[in-house]
Input
Amino acid sequence: MYKKLKIDKILSTISRLRKRIDERIPESSISRVCVELHNSACGAQQRINDLLMPNKWIRFSVFVVIALFFSMLIYTISIVQWQYSTPNLTEIIQITEALINDVLLVGAALFFLITIEQRIKRRDILKELHLLRSIAHVIDMHQLTKDPSMVNSNHNRTESSPKRSMTAFELLRYLEYCSEMFSIIGKIAALFSERLPESSIVSASNDIENLCTGLSTKVWQKMVFLGNDKILIDK
Output
């Protein structure tokens, strides 16, 4: 029961996170990013459902192509006029070499056709993982100017200085929301590698997990700098 990630639980977690953001920091840009994350998770659910279901059109097309190929092969063999004679060593080598080449070509063609469905699904999953990676960088951009050292400080603003209107408590909550979204992104990526444990999918999923861990570490460094015993953490 607790050995696999469940997409419905992840979706409910994202929905609750967005409500928390809207209640604490209404009309914030990070809330809109959370909406995009929820949409991406819904897309992941659809991709996983497609992954578990066979593509009947692709399988039917592959079956037709393979059937036509063997039909043509059988027909070609049936119309050849065979002449039997004792071959010499040179002829045996030539026939063997040609047979090996044909077997390799036919085997490669069959392997290509049989695995085409899996390769199409792998391509679509890698696109979804790339989208998750982009969302992680977007979240990092939003927290980039959230400098805890500038809270309640009388620094001299310039014309290009970012607007900093959050209190220490609001900024702490903001950073925690970013950290939670990084964690959720890693879990969505893990869903794909869990359903399709191929090397390319697992590698891309691990890269996203490592990326989110690194970005979350930067956020937690700000939270540690900002946090103190006087702040009441109310989730």
Observations:
- The chain has one domain: 1-78+90-146+165-229+231-235.
- Residues 1-78+90-146+165-229+231-235 form one domain.
